[in-house]
Amino acid sequence: MMRSPSTKCRLASVVAGMMLACSAIAVQAQEARNVILFLGDAGGVPTLSAGGIMAHDRPQSLFIHSMPNMGLSDTSALNNWVTDSGAGMTAIMTGQKTNGSMISVLPSGADGAVTPVKTFLEYAEEKGLSTGIVTNMKIWDATPAACYAHVASRKNQDEIFKQMLAPRFGDGVDILIGKGRSDAIASFAKRQTTAEQAFAQASYMFGDDPAIVRGAKRAAVLRDSDFAPIPAVEATIAQLARNPKGYFLMVEWDMHTDNLANGLKHVVEMDDMIRRVSAVAGKDTLILFTADHSFGLRMGGGKRSTPLAEQYATEAAKPGATLANNPIISVEDGHTGEEVITTASGPGSEKVRGFFANTKLFDIMMAAVGWTKDK
């Protein structure tokens, strides 16, 4: 039977549509081999906006603004509308909201009892993936600790160090890079040992230079000063990627703007890291950026004809000027409770859409690698 040209065109269109649909399903079904979570501590939307304009003199100039998937995440804690990093990161890493200052535990009784909750990093360790943490804050602080420790108070430094080297699943975080070297020395001294000895007994190469990561299967780099972020992250990824099963990496960068210059500089530093990692990470890598909470920064003025940094500096130099009353960028020193941005690329990133709770990020990471949560 002969078909008319119009019929043939319709059939071709239907077939093409079916092929595109099948292709889309295949893309959506692809599982991530690796997950990289970038966490801007206090990196709320106002801070990101001001950081980008201050650095590049134009709006929406950060790399994260170009990432293909974006949503807005609620950051409230279980007991407070405004969270701290402990409860904020616990929600992201466990899929459960908890009380402020708690680290990957849930309150389970009026007597102060708590119950540990399994973290995404612990799932990764259990599955045999390599794991890493890079932070420009203290390695035992709330955000990194929520990945591997379970304590009722984020202030319990000694217990966090203890759990760092006594993991519940796998052999613990494989690459640790962060600050807090003097804290580690003091903490392990209470147990009649040194930080070097304690980490060596746990099979870590211990030092203060991130370059040692390239030659060590397991490394702990602790220091009390800043380090170059991109080389440290690249070295960490190069080492973790040797595992054929894949890896999970959490990178935290401090964006608190109680020190405005440092906070906005760190925005650009992390954005540059994400740009670089996105260029070199494989297509099998889910890359997420989010914040644990926002901060009290507001951009209140400025002319587009003059660089924003100059205008801010002029106002800051006036007699009586403070961080809180600068008409260009003002800062009230404290966390705030509005939603924060989440951007994403790679397998599973299409689920980053609309408004959602911070706990959904755990679900997104689990779904991306094809894992199911323990009952």
Automatic annotation (TrEMBL):
Gene3D superfamilies per the UniProt record, alphabetical: Alkaline Phosphatase, subunit A
InterPro entries according to UniProt: Alkaline_phosphatase (IPR001952), Alkaline_phosphatase_core_sf (IPR017850)
Coiled-coil intervals, chain numbering: none
Enzyme class: hydrolase
Pfam families: Alk_phosphatase
Signal peptide (residue range): 1-26
Family of the protein in this entry: Belongs to the alkaline phosphatase family.
EC number: 3.1.3.1
Domain of life: Bacteria
One MF annotation (Gene Ontology) recorded for this entry: alkaline phosphatase activity
Keywords for the protein's UniProt record, in alphabetical order: Hydrolase, Phosphoprotein, Signal
Protein name (Swiss-Prot/TrEMBL): Alkaline phosphatase
PROSITE patterns: PROKAR_LIPOPROTEIN
